[in-house]
Known about the structure:
6-stranded mixed β-sheet, about 210 residues, homotetramer, alpha/beta, Aminopeptidase
Amino acid sequence: MAPVLVTGFEPFGGHPSNPSSAVAQAVARREANGLEVVSVELPVDGSAAPARLRALLDDLRPAAVLMLGLAEGRPQPSLERVAVNLLDYPIPDNSGVSRRGEPVVDGAPPAYFSSLPLDAVLEAWRRENLPGYLSDTAGTYLCNQVFYTARHHLSATGRAPLPAGFLHLPCDESLALARPRPYVPLESQVRSVAAALDAITRRLEGA
Amino acid sequence: MAPVLVTGFEPFGGHPSNPSSAVAQAVARREANGLEVVSVELPVDGSAAPARLRALLDDLRPAAVLMLGLAEGRPQPSLERVAVNLLDYPIPDNSGVSRRGEPVVDGAPPAYFSSLPLDAVLEAWRRENLPGYLSDTAGTYLCNQVFYTARHHLSATGRAPLPAGFLHLPCDESLALARPRPYVPLESQVRSVAAALDAITRRLEGA
Amino acid sequence: MAPVLVTGFEPFGGHPSNPSSAVAQAVARREANGLEVVSVELPVDGSAAPARLRALLDDLRPAAVLMLGLAEGRPQPSLERVAVNLLDYPIPDNSGVSRRGEPVVDGAPPAYFSSLPLDAVLEAWRRENLPGYLSDTAGTYLCNQVFYTARHHLSATGRAPLPAGFLHLPCDESLALARPRPYVPLESQVRSVAAALDAITRRLEGA
Amino acid sequence: MAPVLVTGFEPFGGHPSNPSSAVAQAVARREANGLEVVSVELPVDGSAAPARLRALLDDLRPAAVLMLGLAEGRPQPSLERVAVNLLDYPIPDNSGVSRRGEPVVDGAPPAYFSSLPLDAVLEAWRRENLPGYLSDTAGTYLCNQVFYTARHHLSATGRAPLPAGFLHLPCDESLALARPRPYVPLESQVRSVAAALDAITRRLEGA
């Protein structure tokens, strides 16, 4: 049976850790409505990450894809609405590569909307007292890049309706210990992502 | 000879004024590289504003379009990169209408990039010591709506390459007098928009 | 044996609840290094709150005082360094009373520093992975008022060295569900305050 | 006749310039209600700056003192209400010296309020459409240190009522060109400080 793919990222930008990877691993220990959850840590590398993701989409043939990443400074988990065909790295990636105003995929559409059931996730969060919101931009760094890559690759391979989207996570307590900034405890982040997975896969069963 | 169209908005959200309209009027008193500048104040009305804008694009046949709007809380003028086919009003428009997760234009593409020469505008600002930056989201209110409407209508009528884009302005001094928030004096905002128009239309001549 | 006094506030400013009161009650169910913890909810009333607090200080004769309050928008629990002899209410109190540029206590000193062991609390938080920081201002509303009142009354009654100070708490999950803002789950706030009480009272024993 | 002393600071923290010094020099070219304005650039050095300031207060015998400093990130000019007897440098000073939780002056009072006519300055700003506000903390770096030093020295030398206070300035356009942050054009900052000086010295004449 097709699994659910959950991706996180390795550390970057001088941070000693990345909650997105820890959370992805934590939710992979549970099932989501009977589906296996497979977690993968992607490199913060603008060439390797998209290649790895495309291979995973083709090899695993997942039933749904939830990509996670860190958005330092955001106060709550935020579901991205839209992936844009644009790279404009604020800092170089972990391989030292910079991108300035380039497309993610040459000649591809300007944007893809998330194909996750956004309202169902928000509703699940509200039911469980887990704050979160919809975001209008996933930025122009690796997070947007893998989000765009997944939605474009699934469309290009005839799987456009498959639920796939991106969820930005705030700092966790270990990143927030360094200086005053918003954070959500890792344990609470895990609950938010587990609730999102439940909402996403419940919809799959109903289909 | 084709003019340059500059739009602003009427006041909304309880604000007594809207700098975007004052700035649009101020720059309309000058020429931009020999081109006439026509300014129009759009209503904050999700039905009337797009209709008015489409009519202007068809009647005026402008050589370039620069749309202006207020982004309360932003610290500097910000050029939008992308218009998204999505309405999700944070507050009702001035006619009391709300929109929640609807497209701007049914069945139209998910997004359009700005067709303004963004780097040329940034460069012009830097040359004149006018702070400003590129923004990744024009939001999901009227600003994004007219931006998307213009880019879509120009594409649909065979004028996709025509320079058209959106510039968000911060509060001016009169809005900032009410409470502590970032602002840029109106006079400086006028200089930023005039410099943008100069960069946009210089490019037209070179074409 | 003298107890530890922990105060919170009733709801104000349109909020349906106030985490400071819930946290105060939660920590009152535990001991702190063998000392009883007594929790009291203060009214958000600029006349009644100081009167109530002075009576508690005289009747309970506490060994230490930790006052709690809500600081909407702050990202983490923050220990206040200094109480200032100034009232300048940003909104009226719950009795509808406004104060503008008045002293807390006429003719009293301009300020009192916290007499809590601030570094010991920060150290305890760090040891338990609980983010928090020192704040340079408790504002000019009720929080600063009760903080100043307590420190001044203890000084005026010959108890200046008694550990007494103020801790601002961020929104909890129920307040943060309403809109995107930083929050810390109530359960984690309780752990932060319990750790603070432990650090404050451990010092008492060592004296 | 006694002059008005206006101080600014040299650059620090990696900034190429400091608007407080440029503004201090600009206002020194004008009179304030018939009084000469003397401007001095203080070093960002926790030993040299207070010594220099005390010498100026004793040698110049100014009729009023307005100290200026940069508060990166603040959206508008902000008048400080209170100077606190506390040093806790967020970064070392320009001589590489750090201070952590030390008093400005050993054994001196915990705080001094500004002796400037704060409401008169706010009123002058409002009249001239210049946004600005009262701040509750001057921080714990050099700005608070010179503010405290001046108020304490004037008190200690029998000149406590002399108008003396601190005004924090936001970034100017040249600092804001580097990245998106609030700023106020230098020319507008000069007008704000000139208006403040006018309000401060008008009061002197009326005395």
